[in-house]
Amino acid sequence: DGGITQSPKYLFRKEGQNVTLSCEQNLNHDAMYWYRQDPGQGLRLIYYSQIVNDFQKGDIAEGYSVSREKKESFPLTVTSAQKNPTAFYLCASSTRGGSTDTQYFGPGTRLTVL
Amino acid sequence: GIQVEQSPPDLILQEGANSTLRCNFSDSVNNLQWFHQNPWGQLINLFYIPSGTKQNGRLSATTVATERYSLLYISSSQTTDSGVYFCAVGERDGNNRKLIWGLGTSLAVNP
Q1: How many angstroms separate the CA atoms of A97 and A94, rounded?
Q2: Long-range contact set of residues A80-87: C-beta below 8 Å, sequence gap at least 24
Q3: Can you tell me the distance from the alpha carbon of A29 to that of A74, in angstroms, rounded to the nearest whole number?
Q4: Which of B86, B99, B105 should be substituted to probe chain A, the one whose Cβ sees the most A Cβ atoms within 10 Å?
Q5: Tens digit of pLDDT for each residue in B3-19?
Q6: In whole angstroms, what is the distance from residue A102 CA to residue B44 CA?
């Protein structure tokens, strides 16, 4: 079945450690996105990529890094520089071009810093 | 940048009731989407509706772009409708794939 997968579902990290969240899609979508969601809040864009080997910072990119070496994959690294990383992280993808860029979401990763 | 406001912030319904959720936005948009986030966090796209009216089963949505608002109607609500409903818009002159999100309407449907 086509869709977006994220792993792990839950992740615990000690302060000072970098962690990488996985996002894979088999929808053949060009564009991929990472969002952060805090309790009771909307989604805030971290990074997005419209094509392989290219990505742009979103509204809250500080303390995060990404890569887009393959069309299917868009991993997010939460670095030790991110001061408050505990949150729910959501990955999405969409087609490229035109105006019907419906975004499809993965199930999310809940990151907790101990 | 564009501002997105959703109302009401919270809503409690008895099963079978109807409801209307509102999304106001501060500037012209070329992309407006409604999403439902279930209690486990999964986000599902309900409608892509930058203008006009669409219906899907018990849900329908209307966007009046000239007046900068969109409405999501839920009829004959069911407990499975519970969760948070988000409106997200893309700016007309901006990157079509970057969405600006509202804070959502949290809906609880009681049996």
Answers
A1: 10
A2: A80/A15, A80/A16, A80/A17, A80/A18, A85/A13, A85/A111, A85/A113, A86/A111, A86/A112, A86/A113, A87/A36, A87/A37, A87/A38, A87/A111
A3: 12
A4: B99
A5: 999 999 999 999 999 99
A6: 10
**A contact residues 23-52, partner B, Cβ 8 Å cutoff:** 31, 33, 37, 40-45, 48, 50
Q: Which residue of chain A comes nearest to B31, CA vs CA?
A: A99
Contact with chain B for residue A90, Cβ under 8 A: yes
DSSP assignment letter at A60: T
Nearest by CB to residue B101, choosing from A43, A48, A96, is: A43
How does pLDDT run along chain A (114 residues), one tens digit per residue?
Answer: 669 999 999 999 888 899 999 999 999 999 999 999 998 888 999 999 988 999 999 999 999 999 999 999 999 999 988 889 999 999 999 986 555 678 899 999 999 998
- The helix or strand, by DSSP H or E, that contains position A32, with its residue range, turns out to be strand A31-37
The answer to whether residue B90 scores a pLDDT higher than 80 is: yes
Return the pLDDT at B91: 72
